[in-house]
Amino acid sequence: MRLLLVEDDPLLGDGLQRALRADGYTVDWVDRGDQVLSALQREHFDLVLLDIGLPGLDGIQVLKKLRGGDSPIPVIVVSARDTLDDRVAGLDGGADDYLTKPFELDELRARIRARLRRGEDIKHEEIQLGELVIRPQSQEVFRDGELISLPRREFTLFLELVRSRGRVLTRERLEQALYGWSGDVESNALEVHIHHLRKKLGSDVIRTVRGVGYSVAEQ
Ligand code: CA
Questions:
Q1: pTM to 2 decimals?
Q2: Alpha helix (H) ranges present in 50-134?
Q3: Separation of 117 CA from ligand 1 center, angstroms?
Q4: Are 28 and 39 in contact (CB under 8 A)?
Q5: CB-CB contact of 52 with 90 (8 Å)
Q6: Which residue in 63, 74, 85, 157 is a FRET match for 5, CA 20 to 30 A apart?
Q7: How many angstroms separate the alpha carbon of residue 22 from the centre of ligand 1?
C-alpha cells in the first residue's frame, strides 16, 4: 500500500514517514499543497494524509481540487486546527476522516488501516439482483456471468435505482444523479436511458410508476 504524506513540518513529516515505512507502507512525502495533484497524477496512491496549513495550496483547497476532479482517493486530514468548524470544513470539503494534532501514532495507524480496509470492501462490492450481478467499482453488469455493456450514464442511472431498490425514485432525483444540480437536461433524456436499459437488461427490471418516477424491485 502506498501513502502520500503531505506535511510541511520537517520534523513531523520525517518522523511519520519513518514510522509508516517501518509499518510496511510505501510512503512518499511532499511538503507543499500544490504538489499533491501532480503527485497523484504521476503515481498511484492508496491514501493521502493531508495537513491543512500548507504553503502553496492549503489542505482545504487541495481537497476541493481533488473532489472537484472526482478523485475517490481516501484522505485523512491530520491538522492542528481543532475547532468544530475546522473539522466540519475538512469533512464537508471531502475528507474521509479528520485527526487533530497532537495525536497518538497508534490512533493514526488504526485510522489508516480502517480506511484502507473500507477501500478494499468497496472495490469488491457486488450487488446481486435476480440473475444480474452489479459491480459498482468497475461499472459492470453481468447476467449469468456474461458482461452486459452499459455506457456510463446508463450505469449511473441503473446503480442509483439498484441502491434504492424497493423504493420509487422521482424523476428529479434520477435526473440529478445523471446530470448533477446544474446540468441542463433534455426533457426526454431520462426516458431514453430507461428505454435502453430495459432493452439490455430485460423489460421487467425497471418499473414505471406513473406520474412519479421509476423503481427496481427488491428480489
Ligand atoms: Ca502545517
A1: 0.64
A2: 59-68, 84-92, 105-123
A3: 27
A4: yes
A5: yes
A6: 85
A7: 23
